Amino acid sequence: MSQLSGTTPSPLAARIRRLVRDGVYDKPAAWRFSYLLILPGLFVILTMLGIPLVYAFVQSLYDVDLLRPGTPFVGLQNYVDVLSSSAFWSSLRLTAIFVAGTMTLSFVLGMATSLLLNREIWGFGMLRAMVILPFIVSEITVGITWRWLFAPDLGVINAVLSLAGGDPVRWLSEPNWAMFSVIIAESWRLTPFAILILLAGLQSVDRSYYEAARVDGANFWHAFRHITIPNIKPQMLITLIYLSFACVNQFAIIFSLTGGGPGQSTEVVALYMYDAAFGNFQFSLGSTLAVLLFIVNVVLSLTYMRVLRTDD
Amino acid sequence: MSFLTRPRFWRNAILNVLTFVAVAWAVGPLVWAVSSSFKALDEIYSFPPTLLPVSPTLDNYQLILEGENFFRYFLNSGIVTAVSVVITVALSLLGAYAFARFKFPFRSILLMLILVPRIIPSITRVVPLYQLWAELEMLNTYTALILPYAADALPIGIWILIGFFQAIPKELEEAAMIDGCSRFGALWRIIIPLTLPGVVAVALFSFLRSWNEFILAFTFIDTDAMRTLPVAHYQVFEFFGIRHWGAINAFTVLAALPIVIFFLIFEKHLVRSLTAGSVKG
Predict the structure, then answer these.
(1) CA A153 → CA A163, B48, B60, B245, distances in Å?
(2) Is residue A55 a contact partner of residue B126, using CB atoms and an 8 Å limit?
(3) How many Cα atoms are found within 13 Å in the side-chain-facing hemisphere of B107?
(4) How far apart are CA A23 and CA A118, in angstroms?
(5) In Å, how far from its chain's centre is CA B138?
């Protein structure tokens, strides 16, 4: 690289030259080859992921309204407006309920299923494949499959309820039941993920621990608390963190199951954002909400990194 | 009948029943969709519902395959997915190779620039990307979906493959180059075959995400001819009304079938790629 060995070496160039001499870096020809290999992937990632995010942030500082001409700069006014609107806090509250409900249900079901499958059991491979299926199909398939199960008049859940002597429930058109229904559908889809990770963890635990515990007279709960949980703690953390991302960013299942309704009773932040941008053409409000949602993701990621680091 | 009095027998029996319940919970909704898809409309409307179709019919499938542009949607999804997978695998291989093999200035900054955007979910970039494609007059094109799908899978693809490349000793490649291979030749003939399991994992990861993706496709596509399967699946109610559940379920089965078949063939690899995305990310 001639510019690095030119007549006026910058401190950076001098430092890099020193590092090459000491063998920390390869020869410049190898750098150029590396940059060439990295460039296409980096270009796609930055243009499709990085620039849109920056654009959303910039747009959140302006007052863009497609139904009105002019885009005045308003600074952080959009954030002030959003954070002082009841619609935002209502959607955030619904998101919290949805995330907490789904994470709890899918984690508990995933743990229970993993424990059941982690035995000497006939047809293990087939059973595992079957319980993973809901995670493989599309989110729209999940939404529509559950919409059919929850259908008020022809749905099988209400049919079973009436056969058992109960009253049919309008699952998707009563606010609390609608939230319950989207939590069930999302948990159904995410439980397999918990199974994949937790089962892998369970299978890595040395079986001799359990035999020793049994000799000492420990029952299932003792063994679970003192052997299983400490041994699969990393897998439990990874599962919980992944589930939190998946729930916070969930759009398609809720969109296809309830559309955010009835009223706004299942309109989590993701749906509120989409509706603001594409339902009401308030692109600045949509961008502001997108940035806020992104910040939630960043906070989750930082927690993720910290927890995993301290856990090692 | 002495085994009936043994606690171990009863314990196992109860656990087996619970296992059956867990499996039924997972596959039950899909089995119900399959069963409903073979029922005629009057059977769908009958009470109590029948577990299996009494008089199985293919009418619902005929409705979907003849009444809708199903093959076009399938083709659109296929093209978008295939190109996304090829781009993802190719660019992941190139990038991961550079990161695993060479020491160069700004390496860790570049690696961060590639990995960190992974935490930007589709939902937060659908608005600006829509505006970008609208500005470029590229809404309703395959490219408008392929590029974001590739970008979505690339960070994880590069991350998975760096691990595979690092596991291959550098001497192996140098030996091939001494024997007259160019660097690309060594990469192509020696290194890539050794990373095949990683390539399969990356390809499957990208395949699943692209084939199932909804929000970007729903937003960027508004002509019938360009719709992908998940979008057409969502809009099936507009076509049949909300009560033609036989046809709606037939669509569900047809849309899910390719992915289920893939899953059965590649189950082991898939488990790896599904978990790699989260554990390593």
Answers:
(1) 13, 11, 20, 12
(2) no
(3) 19
(4) 49
(5) 24
What percentage of chain A carries pLDDT values higher than 90? 48
- With H, G, I as helix, E, B as strand and everything else as coil, classify residue A260: coil
Residue A122's region, left for phi above 0, alpha for psi from -120 to 50, else beta, is: beta
B245 to A154: CB separation less than 8 angstroms, yes or no: yes
Residue position matching structure tokens 């769908």: B44
Model confidence at A118: pLDDT above 50: yes
Q: Provide the 10 A C-beta neighbour count for residue B182.
A: 10
Q: Which residues 6+ apart lie within 8 Å of A221 measured at CB? A: none
Q: Which residues pair with A62 in a beta bridge?
A: A73
Tokens of B45: 């409307």
Under 8 Å between Cβ of A26 and B102: yes
What was the pLDDT predicted at A68?
A: 64
Q: Are A287 and B123 in contact (CB under 8 A)?
A: no
Q: What is the pLDDT of residue B29?
A: 96
Q: How many whole angstroms separate alpha carbon B214 and alpha carbon B216?
A: 6
Say if the Cβ atoms of A53 and B120 lie within 8 Å: yes
DSSP classification of residue B47: S
Most confident of the ranges A100-114, A290-304, B36-50, B261-275: A100-114
List residues bridging with B92 in a β-sheet: none
Interface predicted TM-score of the whole assembly (ipTM), two decimals? 0.89
Amino acid at B274: L
Mark which residues 58-77 of B lie under 8 Å from A by CB.
none
| Most A-contacting residue of B118, B127, B143, B262 (CB-CB within 10 A), to test interface | B127
Give CA–CA dist A99/B115, Å, rounded.
Answer: 25
pTM of the shown model: 0.89
